[in-house]
Amino acid sequence: MVSVVEHFTSIQGEGKFSGRYSLFIRLGGCNLSCKGFGVKTRSLKTGEILVGCDTIKAVQTSHFEHSKFDYKTLVNLVKETEFKPLIVITGGEPLLWHKDEDLIKFAQWCFEQDYEVHFETNGTVFVDFDKFEVYKKSKFAVSVKLSISGEPKSKRINQKALQAIFANADAFYKFVICGSELDEINEILELQNGEVWCMPLGKDRFELGKNALNVAEFCIKNGFNYSDRLHVRLWNDKEGV
């Protein structure tokens, strides 16, 4: 069984598949805290202020409610959708669950029913694709964290994990930046090359607006692809969209 923080249908707001109708299944747990992103959320259990990324409820799971979903419950989420969405497994860090039998069965069922399955990962968890072959059919948005995240390089960059993903599946990079991180991006590309999308730091419309132009110009100057945050443009910092 997997720990599910939330699930909802919306449009994909980020990266290569931006604008696509999607079912998001957010799994709980992460191996990074990313306090450098500076998003603040109050704990529902202790009342303390937590600092981290914009999905902090999926990271600091002990402070929030979540549910355990088995294979059948995951399948029912898909069957309940009116149309045919992309299946986006996100987090937290969803690949922490890649060995879970229910998740494996769910992914296999999705492919048998001709759904696309996308994983949104920070690229630090090594997956043995020969042992877990079902993931070779998936697509991976690999958001390697840069120094802006506040995490040490030793925790946020795993060359072996990156090489496994890009060698075995359809993958692209999605970097969160402010517009001056070229050296960091190139360092990662030297470890493992791949298509690059750069996305502005933006927990809300104000921060997104402040950083978007710099990031767009950075992409034009360096030949990268630009990713906006459509969900932030449309719904600001509302959750579950």
UniProtKB/TrEMBL annotation:
Its EC number is 4.3.99.3. Substrate binds at residues 11-13, 26, 90. GO terms for biological process: tRNA queuosine(34) biosynthetic process. GO terms for molecular function: 4 iron, 4 sulfur cluster binding; carbon-nitrogen lyase activity; magnesium ion binding; S-adenosyl-L-methionine binding. Pathway: Purine metabolism; 7-cyano-7-deazaguanine biosynthesis. Mg(2+) binds at residue 55. Its cofactor is [4Fe-4S] cluster; Mg(2+); S-adenosyl-L-methionine. The keyword S-adenosyl-L-methionine applies. Homodimer. HAMAP family: QueE. Catalyzes the complex heterocyclic radical-mediated conversion of 6-carboxy-5,6,7,8-tetrahydropterin (CPH4) to 7-carboxy-7-deazaguanine (CDG), a step common to the biosynthetic pathways of all 7-deazapurine-containing compounds. Belongs to the radical SAM superfamily. 7-carboxy-7-deazaguanine synthase family. This is 7-carboxy-7-deazaguanine synthase.
